[in-house]
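thread from #wetlab-drylab

HS: before we spend reagent money on co-crystallization trials with alpha-D-glucopyranose, can we at least see a predicted complex? here's what I'd submit
DV: go for it
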Amino acid sequence: MIVKEYIKDFEKLGFGMFVHFGPYSVIGRGEWAKKTHNISWDEYMKAVQAFNPKPTWAAELAQAAKEAGARYITLTTRHHEGFSLYDTRGLSTYDAPHSAAGRDLIREYVDACNDVGIVPFFYHTTLDWYHPDFNTNFKSYLQYLRDSVEVLCSEYGKIGGLWFDGNWSKPGEDWEEDALYGVIRKHQPEAIIVNNTGLSARGEPGNLQLDSVTFEQGRPTPMNREGMSKYFAAEMCHTLNAHWGCGHSDFNYKSLPHLIETLCACRKVGANYLLNVGPTGEGEITLLQEALLRGIGDWISLGGSSIYEGKPCGVSCEDAPKNFALRIDNKLYFYVHDLSITGDSNVTVAGGGAGDKVFTGVPGRIKSVKWTDCDGNLAFTQDGDKVTIGCTGCTSGKSLVVRVAEAEIE
Ligand code: GLC
């Protein structure tokens, strides 16, 4: 099996922020608003002419990602309605420089990411509701798509990768994928290339130029890499509420414990977690979204920083299947869920329990174990590959959802 180093590096990014942003953000009814609400083009152009993000939108986005502990952002450079946030350099006038924004928003995005050390990725639609050739002259449309992608790959310096979405709209068509990916490889030999397989074909690998499979709105399951000629990474993308693009009346937010557990569940199987936010038309991340993101970041900095480099290592837990371990060199990180809070029983009502947790498949002899969020060693016993760790509850003042213990192995 071919294993490319840049794909391994992508896996170490671990956690990314997906961003759906475009004229639909002004409308506030999701990124499919044009289609689902049957909005005429005349009407939609009003949103395009109102789409003028505030000057600091990109810097705020990059900062929010940073505070969330995300190491990359994947931003919609063009979504299904065909509008480009970048300067298409003459390919179309339906782009940010020719709209109310009057400037190249992707330039601002890439600069803001580079300023704070976030890796910029580009989402790009392959289907197009606007371009007339999409339904009448598909071959010529594909040339337009390639030319568009060539602009993105040659004008913004080194990028993390391209994330395509839309081939599922014409399953029987020849999308000339080799030619499209060839354009990327010409300029960005180490860019991660993804082509979303959508809700009906999660985890399916495709063209060998692709580098990662997708699990859109899925559940993290281990990849079956048997028989594959190339090592594919895996990435699972989720919405923070129920829409990708801004939904003004979408209250259906996931909880912070759910987000922390999902991040851990992805890393348990070696998949990246790509968590979406939908800023408003001005480019504002709402307070609620920002708070949830920051909560994840706080959890990572308190004790969860092994999510990035940690690799699955075949350790499982008899007592609770959600528990697992990751390995970094001679360190193991045990992820323990649902620990109770230790303290006066009148005020500590958290669920779960403390006590012995039995892990099997442990590679090597353990020298010591301690929580990553506080000092002091934990009691443990080892019998071959079976390790029993005396997991203490969180001391009052903490309730970590998932608590991580670090062990050194010989
Ligand atoms: C779907 C949707 C799209 C969204 C994407 C994100 O393919 O069509 O709106 O961008 O999922 O994974």
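DV: The pocket of alpha-D-glucopyranose is lined by residues 20, 31-32, 165, 196, 198, 216, 237, 244 (CB under 6 Å).
HS: ok that's useful, forwarding to the group
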